[in-house]
């Protein structure tokens, strides 16, 4: 498992032009050999404490400091090239790790960064040969960088960058670096569409017809496998666990089925015994009791008045 904090970008320019390994250079607004950058990502702990190590190494030299919070970089611009060269030549450490400053290059229209995101097919030295053979004739290589382990001479095949000044603004760069076993994609500002999968130009990987065809075939095979598995399994018998076993009707013949009667037939309530008289609470029972005479309180024992009397009028029913 790679631990990216153990790797740093180093200059490989000396492998092209021979000589000693020089300091890495990167693009920067108003960049120059006197403007030095320190990337915060290389520090595991407190960044201000790590930067104090750099400031103490500058000594009495006059410099300008600028913290770029968007890029997570501190830029130090020294007044003369000698002080900058002196700082770059020192070995600085913080928390038992080496601090890696880099010099900057001014952004110009004819200078661009060529990105090589993946070259795992070939070795690092073979990659340098391809860059020298196929890019050097098109311009001047200002620098080339790759990710190297801080403690051993180990490179990882990702994130290589070439700082190139083109011969002219109109000079066109290739989309691939060709080698014996295939092609390697390169990307830069204004490059045309090129697919990193099929190694053809005219489209990006997201629109690659070859990759889409493979993806659709895989999806079709997966769907077929799921369908065959679905039909091979017997569907289990569904039983409503909320329905009592006694109510499960095998025959839905209306003559023999009691399910409807059980679900929809209104139960008949038993008559109630009130003062020795059975009274039903259903509407039919109430209608059947039309002969029941209700009397008001205090009328028990009185004689029935004559038919012509006013008292013979209908006595309202008692609420009891």
List the helices and strands and how they pair.
Blueprint (H helix, E strand, L loop, with lengths): L6 E5 L2 H4 L7 E4 L6 E5 L7 H12 L4 E6 L4 E6 L2 H9 L3 E2 L2 E2 L2 E6 L4 E8 L5 H11 L4 E11 L8 E9 L9 E4 L2 E4 L23 H24 L26 H6 L7 E3 L2 E3 L3 H6 L32
Parallel strand pairs: 2-8
Antiparallel strand pairs: 1-10, 3-5, 3-8, 4-5, 6-7, 9-11, 10-11, 12-13, 14-15
In summary, what is this structure?
The protein is α+β, with helices and mostly antiparallel strands and 320 residues long. 22% of the residues lie in helices and 24% in strands.
Strand content: 15-25%
Query: Based on the structure given, which CATH architecture of the domain at 30-106 is correct?
Result: 2-Layer Sandwich
Q: Which fold name corresponds to the CATH topology of the domain at 30-106? A: Alpha-Beta Plaits
The helix count comes to: 7
Q: Major sheet, described briefly?
A: 5 strands, mixed
Q: What is the C-level CATH assignment of the domain at 30-106? A: Alpha Beta
- The separation of the N and C termini measures 93 Å
Give the tally of β-strands.
15
Could you say which overall geometry the principal axes of the C-alpha atoms support? extended
Q: Can you walk through the features of this model?
A:
This protein has 320 residues and is an alpha+beta fold. It has a domain at 30-106: RRM (RNA recognition motif) domain (Alpha-Beta Plaits, 2-Layer Sandwich). The protein has seven helices and 15 strands. The chain has helices spanning 14-17, 47-58, 81-89, 124-134, 209-232, 259-264, 283-288, and strands spanning 7-11, 25-28, 35-39, 63-68, 73-78, 93-94, 97-98, 101-106, 111-118, 139-149, 158-166, 176-179, 182-185, 272-274, 277-279. The strands form five sheets. It has a five-stranded mixed beta sheet. A hairpin with a 2-residue loop joins strand 14 (272-274) and strand 15. The two termini are 93 Å apart. Residues 256-264 and 283-296 have low confidence and may be disordered.
């Amino acid at each position: 498992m790679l631990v990216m904090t153990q790797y740093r970008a180093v200059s490989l320019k000396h492998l092209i032009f021979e000589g000693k390994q020089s300091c890495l250079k990167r693009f920067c607004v108003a960049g120059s050999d006197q403007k030095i950058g320190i990337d915060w990502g290389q520090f595991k702990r407190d960044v201000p404490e790590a930067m104090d190590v750099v400031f103490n190494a500058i000594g009495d030299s006059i410099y300008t400091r600028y913290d770029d919070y968007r890029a997570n970089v501190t830029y130090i611009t020294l007044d003369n090239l000698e002080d900058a060269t002196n700082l770059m030549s020192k070995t600085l450490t913080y928390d038992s790790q080496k601090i890696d400053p880099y010099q900057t290059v001014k952004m110009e229209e004819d200078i661009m960064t060529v990105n090589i995101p993946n070259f795992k097919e070939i070795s690092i030295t073979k990659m340098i040969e391809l860059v020298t053979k196929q890019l050097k004739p098109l311009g001047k290589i200002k620098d080339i960088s790759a990710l190297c382990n801080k403690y051993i001479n180990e490179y990882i095949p990702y994130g290589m960058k070439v700082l190139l000044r083109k011969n002219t603004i109109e000079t066109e760069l290739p989309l691939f670096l060709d080698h014996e076993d295939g092609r390697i994609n390169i990307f830069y500002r204004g490059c045309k569409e090129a697919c990193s999968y099929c190694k053809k130009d005219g489209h990006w990987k997201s629109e690659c017809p070859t990759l889409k065809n493979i993806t659709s075939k895989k999806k079709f095979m997966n769907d077929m496998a799921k369908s065959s598995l679905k039909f091979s399994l017997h569907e289990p018998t569904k039983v409503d666990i909320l329905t009592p076993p006694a109510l499960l009707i095998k025959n839905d013949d209306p003559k023999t089925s009691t399910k409807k009667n059980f679900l929809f037939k209104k139960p008949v309530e038993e008559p109630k015994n009130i003062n020795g008289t059975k009274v039903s609470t259903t509407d039919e029972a109430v209608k059947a009791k039309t002969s029941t005479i209700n009397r008001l309180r205090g009328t028990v024992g009185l004689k029935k008045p004559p038919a012509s009397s006013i008292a013979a009028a209908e006595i309202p029913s008692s609420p009891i």
